[in-house]
Design goal:
This protein is of the alpha/beta class. The protein has a single domain, classed as Rossmann fold (3-Layer(aba) Sandwich), CATH 3.40.50.410. The chain has six helices and seven strands. Helix 4 links the parallel strand 3 and strand 4. Helix 1 runs antiparallel to helix 2. The longest helix has 15 residues.
Length: 198
Amino acid sequence: METSLDRAREAALRFLQKTIRPKDRAAVIPFNDHPTLAVKFTHDLETLAGGLAGLKAERGTALYDSLIFTLYYFNGVKGQRAILLLSDGKDEGSRFTWEETLETVRRAGVTIYAIGLGDQVEKKKLERLSEETGGRAFFLADAAELDEIYTRIEKELRSQVLIVYQSSRERGTTAFRTVDLKVGRKGLEAKTIRGYYP
């Protein structure tokens, strides 16, 4: 991220300035070979900007460990929850495996918007993380494209609808259940979690 860090930081701050409203909360969790909680959940833009200003590009990429750390940080948080994951590399040296990460993501109920910057990212894995949670994955060659992506994410976060249903399946099974949501009108798209555990 070294060559892209300044532009990535500025784009993230613009996103927060446009998106955060009084009832919203955001946190900053940078990661290299381990995650760090730089800013706890807050709606104070000055505090969030300070956390972004302290970002550094150094050491490895513990992507899976950082995702699991972030999902645990969401425990007890109510309402709509989303992670914007920006990375320019693939996982290097996480203690958690890909399978453990995917399982945790499925159980967490947090939407993941994954942004892969450059050509070193594992596109299929970032796409899978996003698809499992009802989010999207974006792949960019240059950090200059981040503003456009953040605008698309902000629109999605502000245009969500809650749909509730009750399964007719027997209660005895604890296996993963897939969800298939289809839209009956042309030109519309629906995104949802891939499934859930009862």
